[in-house]
Design goal:
By secondary structure, this protein is α+β, with helices and mostly antiparallel strands. It has ten helices and twelve strands. The strands form four sheets. The protein has a five-stranded mixed β-sheet with strand order 6-5-4-7-8, with helices on both faces.
Length: 339
């Protein structure tokens, strides 16, 4: 879908609102305050409903990252389109220019959209088959100057992430404090099924984790061994390279405070794609990966909107509030707030 087709599919604000309601309320319209499924439309008020139980008014943007927005939904549709159809993301400067808002507003819009890309590990199927894990430090080479410390490897102060990928499947990425066993083990247990064939390097942590899986292969990077037949972690390293290119070429800076949302975007884009087998000119079989159609991607996105809210902090940053919309437990403990 190109931009002209997008405008044809969403010709006015009513079409945008219907699309949001169809997917945000895919399981039925419910009051975000008392969870009642009994509500009625208010006449003369576009998109506004009143709960029959608690008598509170709400719209489709309530209790979502769009909560309290004063922007037309068409601008949100354009922002979602630009982010989902980009190869590595869109900076807030370009997003604001394309959507027609300020850079500060575009920055908040971008993080609101990335917040909907977060994966609930408690309800997501575990990775199976061949699974690779790897760690990566986010950030390029430091600038040289007086007083700069240029420690390398594990001595660096750069934020570290754990990459977990299923070959020809989903990829998950999480910020970690260190690459110790007590830090990585709980995440791997939550993400990877015990029947998986684990692929790692020969770090002590990885070797200990691999003992609990049905099979485990490793390569010795310190001996410059990067692949031994099908044994390699190149898929996870490819994901890490994509993160580095997105940082250097698009965002230029990923704040450690908001790094998890940038990882959400990279994981969402990697996971929601489809592969097609094809042969090169030399006859070699390869898989060509293409993103899913925009309408399907945006449907996945909006179906995860309920229960998340971002609010400006007093210093211009973001405060994140998460309240489970249904009986499922939240992935992490968060502060409660009133509507």
């Amino acid at each position: 879908m190109h931009i002209d087709q997008l405008k044809e599919h969403f010709p006015d604000e009513s079409a945008c609102r219907r699309f949001f309601e169809n997917w945000i309320w895919a399981t039925g319209r419910r009051c975000p305050r008392c969870k009642s499924d009994r509500s009625y439309r208010l006449t003369g008020r576009v998109g506004l409903y009143e709960c029959a139980a608690c008598k509170k008014q709400f719209s489709v943007t309530a209790q979502t990252p769009f909560h309290g927005t004063k922007l037309p939904l068409w601008k949100w549709v354009k922002a979602i389109y630009l982010i989902l159809t980009s190869s590595k993301g869109v900076s807030s400067v370009i997003l604001g220019r394309m959507v027609g808002v300020s850079q500060k507003t575009a920055w908040k819009m971008g993080h609101a959209i990335r917040q909907m890309m977060e994966i609930d590990l408690l309800s997501t199927p575990m990775l199976k088959g061949v699974v690779e894990i790897d760690e990566k430090f986010i950030g390029g080479k430091p600038r040289y100057g007086d007083g700069n410390d240029h420690k390398r490897g594990k001595g660096t102060s750069k934020p570290q992430v754990l990459i977990t990928t299923q070959r020809q499947g989903p990829a998950y990425c999480h910020v970690i404090e260190s690459d110790t066993l007590c830090e990585i083990q709980p995440l791997v247990d939550l993400i990877v099924d015990e029947s998986a064939h684990l692929m790692t390097d020969k770090s002590k942590t990885h070797m200990n984790i691999g003992n609990q899986f049905s099979s485990h292969s490793s390569v010795n990077h310190s001996a410059r061994e990067y692949a031994r037949g099908d044994a390699h972690s190149n898929t996870a390293e490819s994901f890490g390279s994509m993160l580095e290119r997105a940082k250097l070429g698009v965002f230029h800076h990923m704040s450690e405070k908001h790094l998890s949302r940038y990882l959400n975007e990279a994981s969402f884009r990697w996971t929601h794609r489809e592969g097609k087998e094809m042969r090169t000119k030399k006859g070699k079989l390869k898989i060509k990966w293409t993103p899913l159609p925009f309408l399907k991607l945006s449907a996945y996105l909006l179906s995860n909107a309920l229960g998340h809210r971002l609010k400006r902090s007093s210093n211009g940053g973001l405060l994140e509030f998460v309240r489970p919309y249904d009986s499922a437990a939240a992935y992490r403990a968060v502060p409660e707030f009133g509507l």
